[in-house]
Every structure is written in C-alpha cells, then in structure tokens.
Write a structure and sequence with these properties.
elongated; mainly alpha
C-alpha cells in the first residue's frame, strides 16, 4: 500500500525539523556537532576492537568498558610522561617569540644565502630581504600574536582543565552510546527508508563505513608514526652533527598532526624544524648543509611513511586523484581553515561513494 502524502510529510518532519533547528541555531549547535563528529570518528576506530572482544566474552557493554578503560589508562600514562616536557617547551617557545628572534632569523637566512648563492644573486636576495623587512615583520607579529594567544590560554590551567574535561565528558558519553547502540541507530535509520531504495542505501552505508574507517585509522596511525620518527630523526641528527634543535617533542607533535593534511602537512613539519633551528642559539656555525640535513631527515621520514608504513596500515584508499586531493585540501583550508583541510578528503570520499552508488542504482533499478 502506498503511503499518503500526509504520512510522508509527517515522516519527513522527523528529520527536517531537527535539521532546521540545527542550522538556525548554528552558533550554539556547532560545538555539540563537532563533539559528535569526534565521537563518531572514535566509534569508527574502536568499533572493530569492541566487536572482536565481544566475540570472545559475548557481552557488548563489558567490551566497550574494557576498550575505553584501556585507552584512558594509556592516555594518563603518556600524559604523565610527555605532558611536563611539552608544557615546558611551550613556555620556552612563548619567551622566544620576539622581534629579536625575527631579526636573528633574517640574519641567519642571509648567512645561508651567502654560502649557497653566487655573489650577484646573494646581493639581490639581500636587497629583497631588506625591502621586505617591514612586510615580513608584520607577518611575524601576526604569527607571534596568534601563537602567544594560544599558549597563554594553554597556560591558564583552570581554563584548560575545565574546558578539556567538559568536552571530553561529552565526547565520551556520545562515544559510549554510539558503541553500545550504534547498530540500533543504524536499524532505526534503515526502517525509515522506502523498500525500493533499501538495497542501494545499505550498499552506500557499508561502502562509506569501510572506506572512511580504513582512511581514518590509517591516517591516525601514519600521523603517530611520523611524529615518533620525527623526534627520533632529529635527535639522531643533533647527535651526529652537534647542531641544536630544541623543542623536539613540539616539532614531533606538529609534524604528526600536520601529516593528517595530505601533501601540504609534511611541508609544515619540515619548515617548523628548519625555523626552530635557525632561530636557536648554535654552538656549530649555521650552514645550509645543516638546513639541507633537516630537510633530508623529513624526506626520509616521508619515504618511510609512503613506502613502508602507509601500505601496511592503509588497507584501502579513498580512490581520489592526487591533484584532486590537493585542490580539495586548498578549498577546505580556504573555507574552514585547518579543520577544513583535515575533513575535505573524507567528505569528498563520502560524496564520491554516494554518487557512484546512486548512479549504479539508478541504472540497474531504473529509479529514474
């Protein structure tokens, strides 16, 4: 029996009204949605582990508790080990962000240019740096203001702890519900789908889940690998050459997190290490050879990631052309900053799966 127009309207109101409220109150709902997205990503990552434990002990609730308790314990241990070092290095970086540091950076760039370039080219570079001194100084002031603002907030222990704990509690609650009742949510969504679209919708959901879960797990593991190898590589380089690259753990965190941004991320990590080297006090004279060595370390790290790590941990691919990925990252960055860069590729992968499956469904089931 066909549903009446009124019943269809009432059924559609169940998702139209919440969507309209969410959009209308976006200023208030966006933080909650962001926490939901993080919880959903956590569910995608942890669900296979929970399912595996559940297959052994036959209890879903206990499986969720074991996984989350293990993660919390590991997080607390790592925070106690690394947290004080990161905090101390963050405070040191804040004290370094002065115009004297900028002048020191420009002076060392001139030294490197003089060693590397012929005299006539060096004179042109020197003239360019002098002519752009005010512009570069303004850019440095903006960067200083932004970073010092973030570090100042991070230095406010009460603000950080209260905000972090509240956000973590909400994310944890959402994550628990998703891990416990994710299948029920999926079934409720499926029941609202008309029979003629049922098979196609199931295929779309399964393919999206497989593609995105593989991508997210792979990217997070690759980021962890890049962060750890960056710290190890920089320590080895300092031991061999005698140069000073402080804040190694901060650089490792930046390199790992920025690696989540395709193509552009690795450059951010490398430039961070080069700038820290140039603005730091050195026992060994600053030379281009050492800058090149830092770049070489990050090149080796990317080779290890692309040739060894990623093929092993990435069981699937989003199937997008590299040039298209670069365009997506740039567009995402222009629209939503770093968050847009991070989510542009998985969102595009979801749209790609939906379009491909809809086209297949319309062709074989003749919906149109």
């Amino acid at each position: 029996m066909n549903s009446s127009p009124l019943s269809k309207l009432i059924r559609n109101l169940f998702w139209i009204v919440p969507l309209a409220i969410t959009v209308g109150l976006w200023e208030f709902t966006s933080p909650i949605l962001f926490q939901l997205v993080l919880a959903f990503i956590g569910m995608i990552i942890l669900n296979p582990v929970v399912n595996w434990i559940e297959s052994i002990i036959q209890k879903r609730g206990l499986s969720v508790f074991i996984v989350l308790a293990s993660i919390i314990i590991v997080f607390i241990v790592v925070l106690n080990l690394v947290g004080p070092i990161l905090s101390r290095q963050a405070v040191d970086i804040q004290s370094m962000l002065t115009m004297d540091t900028f002048s020191n950076l420009v002076a060392k760039l001139e030294i490197i240019s003089k060693d590397l370039l012929p005299e006539y080219l060096f004179l042109k570079v020197q003239a360019l740096l002098i002519s752009m001194d005010s512009v570069l100084g303004d850019i440095w002031r903006i960067i200083m203001t932004d970073i010092q603002g973030m570090i100042s907030k991070a230095g406010n222990l009460v603000f950080v702890v209260s905000s972090f704990v509240m956000a973590l509690i909400f994310i944890l609650v959402f994550l628990i519900f998703l891990l416990l009742d994710g299948q029920n949510f999926k079934r409720a969504f499926i029941h609202a789908i008309p029979n003629q679209y049922f098979e196609m919708t199931m295929k779309i959901l399964d393919k999206i889940s497989d593609s995105i879960s593989a991508y997210i797990r792979g990217q997070l593991l690759a980021a962890l690998s890049v962060g750890i190898t960056s710290v190890i590589g920089l320590y080895i380089l300092q031991w061999i050459t005698g140069i000073n690259i402080p804040y190694t753990y901060i650089i490792g965190c930046v390199a790992g997190l920025s690696n989540l941004i395709p193509f552009i991320g690795p450059i951010i990590g490398m430039l961070t290490a080069v700038i820290v080297y140039l603005v730091s006090e050195q026992v060994v004279p600053v030379q281009f050879m050492y800058v090149f060595s830092i770049m070489g370390i990050f090149g080796i790290i990317q080779l290890i990631d692309n040739i060894i790590v990623s093929p092993i941990i990435m069981s699937g691919s989003v199937g997008l052309h590299p040039m298209f990925v670069i365009i997506l990252v740039l567009v995402g960055g222009a629209m939503a900053g770093p968050i847009g860069m991070l989510f542009s590729v998985p969102v595009a992968a979801i749209i790609k799966v939906i379009v491909e499956e809809l086209r297949w469904g319309f062709k074989h089931y003749k919906f149109l």
